[in-house]
Amino acid sequence: MIKLIITGVWVAIVTLGAVYGSIQLAKPEDPNAEAEKKKAVQEFIPGEMVTFPVIKKGDVVGYFLSKTSYIVDKSKMAEVTVPIPAVMTDELYTAFVGDQIIRIGDNRELDVKGFRERIKTAVNKRLGAEVVVDVVFEQIDYLSKDNLRQQRADKAETIVHEAPPADIPAGKAAEGGH
Q1: pLDDT per residue over 117-138, tens digit each?
Q2: Which residue, 16, 107, 158, 159, is most buried by CB atoms nearer than 10 A?
Q3: CA–CA separation, 166 and 168 (whole Å)
Q4: 145 phi and psi, to 5 degrees?
């Protein structure tokens, strides 16, 4: 009789162990775990205010004021020898002044997502690695030359205003002025 009870307890323990093991193996992976791993190696680098002239027919008609920050992959930052703020400013200058991505007076809206992707892709291409994970336009303003002459900077036309991401740790401020 005792053998029968011991055998029953043993079978129950083995069955419970097998059920517990199969449930643990069948659990799907936490989808947030991958995102958390990515965020752990990311760092927010605050940008600085940079001014770009708006040129029409060879004459300066106004200025874009831009504060553009970026999120970088900390593990790939060690490979970078070129200062990222300088490359970022150069790409923004190319977009605003050279390619005139925003044309004031043409009532053309800015594709912020496309512009963000363009800057990120161009900077990563110049750095030779996927260092910049995302670009954050904290502010893009336009000041016309007439407004500046009248000393009325409060008439700035805000085009883009974003808050830095709260869930990515901030890094040191970019060095050097532009």
Answers
A1: 888 888 888 888 888 888 888 8
A2: 159
A3: 6
A4: -65, -35
